[in-house]
Amino acid sequence: MKLLHSRNIDIECFALEDKKIKAIGLLDDDRGLPLRTYSGKKIPAGGDLHTMRVTLVLDEQLCIEQAEIEMLDTPGTQCLSIEQQSEQLLGLCIQRGFRRALFERIGGIKGCMHVNTLLTQMAPAILQASFAAKGQEGGLSEQQWLENIADSCHVMRQDGEVMALKLQQLRTKQSA
After folding, report:
1. What torsion do the CA atoms of 70, 7, 98, 71 make, to the nearest 10 degrees?
2. What are phi and psi of 167, to 5 degrees?
3. Would you kindly state where each structural domain of the chain is located, as residue ranges?
4. DSSP letters of the chain?
5. Measuring CA to CA, which residue among 98, 148, 147 is closest to residue 107?
6. What pLDDT digit, counting tens, does each position of 96-155 carry?
7. What angle (nearest 5°) sits at the alpha carbon of residue 55, between those of residues 134 and 105?
8. What stretches of the chain adopt beta strand conformation (E)?
9. How far, in Å, CA of 5 to CA of 22, rounded?
10. 167-171: long-range contacts at Cβ-Cβ below 8 A with a sequence spacing of 24 or more?
């Protein structure tokens, strides 16, 4: 068996002052076989084809206040122009419809598929970080947690067994 391609995505989220979150995502694509890119750049077996970092600062409502896109390894210098697209992310909020709004701003020919992939993966990690931060602060009630998580996956669908059980448990606590 011969490795053709590997992709690693790493995402870290940090609590900042004023209940803000800093999220740093890194996407690293390595080639298993040697490659010559569109620009003529030679990538050896095991070499970096794409390495990009996206850094976001989000407010308490999970709206992007600061954004930076860094293209660390690219197939060619033309890819570097995507770094200026970071301003297009400002004001975008991590909520339902995020992927659609992201694509409208920097999707297709307006952006970079790899940056979009990374941002799409960062969104759920940012939500998890937000839940952790609010839970730590005692600021997220069980009712709010259920509202935030409802319909986020098949297990947490509103008409599903787990959500019905959680809602019943919440009603029991509230009536006690």
Report:
1. 10
2. -65, -40
3. 5-136, 141-176
4. ----EEEEEEEEEEE-GGG-EEEEEEEEEEESS-EE-TTS-EE-TT-EEEEEEEEEEE-TT-BEEEEEEEEEE-SSGGGGGGGGGGGGGTT-BSSTTHHHHHHHHH-GGGS-HHHHHHHHHHHHHHHHHHHHHHHHHT---HHHHHHHHTTSSSTT-TTSHHHHHHHHHHHHHHH-
5. 98
6. 899 999 999 999 999 999 999 999 999 999 998 988 887 665 555 677 777 777 777 888
7. 100
8. 5-15, 21-31, 35-36, 42-43, 48-58, 64-73
9. 30
10. 170/142, 170/143, 170/146
Phi, psi (rounded to 5 degrees) for 32: -80, -25
Between CA 49 and CA 74 the distance in angstroms is 6
Question: Residue 155 has what pLDDT?
Answer: 84
Q: Which residue is listed with tokens 């600061």? A: 66
Sign of CA pseudo-dihedral 159, 165, 166, 169: positive
> Among 25, 122, 12, which Cα is nearest to 68's?
25
Total Cβ atoms within 10 A of residue 49: 19
Please report where in the chains the tokens 């339902």 appear, as a residue: 96
> 15 pairs with which residues across the strands?
21
